[in-house]
Amino acid sequence: MLCYLSWLSLNTGDACLLPSKTQSVVELHFLCVAIITACCHPLVCLSTRVVVFGIKMVIRVYITSSTGSRAVKKHQQAVVGFLEANRISFQEVDVTMLEEQRLWMYRNIPRDKQPEKGNPLLPQIFNEDRYCGDYEDFFQSKEDNTVFAFLGLSSQPSVK
């Protein structure tokens, strides 16, 4: 599968990848998955933001659809609700259903954010491969009015 690196900004870390004109819809689907997971081109791993056909999909919120904890449910809803209300593109990753993603998430949470016992509580928030934080970090950034910096976004998205 061919993919062209249209541009890569070393200043901002943005990358734009474009498919070749001969790719089918199925190939484009797989290309999007590859870009989002940063497997399509080695230079993508250097970027903090990937633009696919003008759509930015950078924030990943790791959640669970199967929890008995009301606090976890409320925290997940608060994060997702904020992102939706502010029109921030994000991807929910349900670790209940995706074992590989759950293991990836656990491996990529910094050691100082790991609990002494057990697993980190959900939700966990990433910008591509960069760890942003957990719900407590998110909540504090909301209180400080620094959510966009916390998420690693340059500015608030424009609303039309």
Write up this protein.
- The chain is of the alpha/beta class and 160 residues long.
- The chain has helices at 25-36, 70-85, 99-108, 135-143, 147-150, and strands spanning 3-8, 14-19, 49-52, 55-56, 59-63, 90-94, 124-127, 130-134.
- The strands form two sheets. The chain has a four-stranded mixed sheet with strand order 1-2-3-4, covered by helices on one side. A four-stranded mixed sheet has the order 6-5-7-8, with helices on both faces.
- The termini are far apart.
- Mean pLDDT is 76; it is low at 1-15, 21-30 and 36-55.
What layout of secondary structure does this protein have?
Blueprint: E1 3-8, E2 14-19, H1 25-36, E3 49-52, E4 55-56, E5 59-63, H2 70-85, E6 90-94, H3 99-108, E7 124-127, E8 130-134, H4 135-143, H5 147-150
Question: Could you write a compact summary of the structure shown?
Answer:
The protein is an alpha/beta fold and 160 residues long. It is built from 5 helices and 8 strands, in the order ββαβββαβαββαα.
Keywords:
8 strands; alpha/beta; globular; four-stranded mixed sheet; 5 helices; 23% strand; 160 residues
Instruction: From the alpha carbons, calculate the radius of gyration and give it in angstroms.
Output: 17 Å
- Fraction in beta strands: 15-25%
Terminal CA distance reads: 36 Å
Q: Give the overall shape.
A: globular
List the total number of helices.
5
Element order, helices and strands? EEHEEEHEHEEHH
The major beta sheet can be summarized as: 4 strands, mixed
Number-wise, the strands total: 8
User: Helix/strand-derived class?
Assistant: alpha/beta
The average pLDDT is: 76
The percent range for helix content is: 25-40%
Order of the strands making up the biggest sheet: 1-2-3-4
| Parts with pLDDT < 50 across at least 5 consecutive residues | 1-15, 21-30, 36-55
